[in-house]
Amino acid sequence: MAIKQFGKKGMFLTLISISIIAAVIIIFTPSGLDLSKNMPVIKTRVSNVNEYVLDLENVYLENALKATGRKTLIGLIKWMENPLGTARFFTNFKGFEDSFSEVLLYGQIEGADIDEYYEGAIMDGNTYINLIDDIKTTAEQTFNVETIFTVNDIKVEQTRPWFVDVEADITFRVSSETASWNKNVLIKTEISVENFDDPYYLVNTGGSYINKIRKSDTKFDEWSDEKVIDFIEDGNYTHFEDGQAPSFLMRFYNDISASSCCGIESLVNPNNPSISNKDVSYVDYLYWSSVENCANPPYTLLRVDKIHTEFPNFKFDLNHLAKYKLSADEQICPPPG
Questions:
Q1: Nearest CA to 286 among 231, 323, 246?
Q2: Are strands 316-317 and 146-160 parallel, antiparallel or unpaired?
Q3: How distant is the alpha carbon of residue 273 from its chain centre?
Q4: Which of 24, 141, 170, 302 has a Cα at 20 to 30 A from 95?
Q5: Domain coordinates of the chain in residue numbers?
Q6: The whole model's pTM is what?
């Protein structure tokens, strides 16, 4: 009988022990209440990463594209000038766009490092891949997130006279401890063409005539002898709504047909040592493209004495004489009479 009483007491003590252990487990195990206390921290982390994702789309990737796009154009112009060899145009727009993409992403052209074609380093460390890798590293250090980028395509075009449009098709994934984002975005930016060397001048003179793209302040109805003289002297460019000039990008591949949206033109300075006296119009895209044949010219050539005094040998075609609001003093081709 004593043995039975001891068993009951042992069972009672065991139940008490189990209850105490259960109470301890309940007290020290994180509960729903503990998770709710952490929710503000989790929300803050998710919010910070979400802001990073939005900034990727709207700020970081575009700024990187603008910066490396500008350097890409500089590199391509220097490659065309090619002080190590013969200056050359791109074959066509497709060839130009493919090279633009290759240089922008990898700093290479035709499989070779483009920085090898001239002194100094333009693309080294400045490709689009380099810059988005920098973004990736900074985000990892700042937000403790992993970012994976894939650049699917690069496009370049012109829709306005004084700007080049660059577009990058990008897929990216951002992963953190709390959430992940998968997106495909089109990143677009505009690059001003001003202050770039005109590749059309460089190639046609073997790099000896450097003319930077600078927009004239003169409006289409404000031209005069004096303004044209300043225009030639400064080497500036203008855009006529109904003009026949090529765009900035068309100058990379020697297409001097009329651009429907974006034609710009300058007037060749006959006082430049690279320029010889020719019986052609000195409007830039006509000077190097026209056949010199005064007996049977493709257009009438005329001289304006006041401009001729400052710039001997300078000649206008009839169409541009009207655009620049000038009056001819002498017809040169075909010879009068």
A1: 246
A2: unpaired
A3: 33
A4: 170
A5: 47-192, 194-337
A6: 0.85
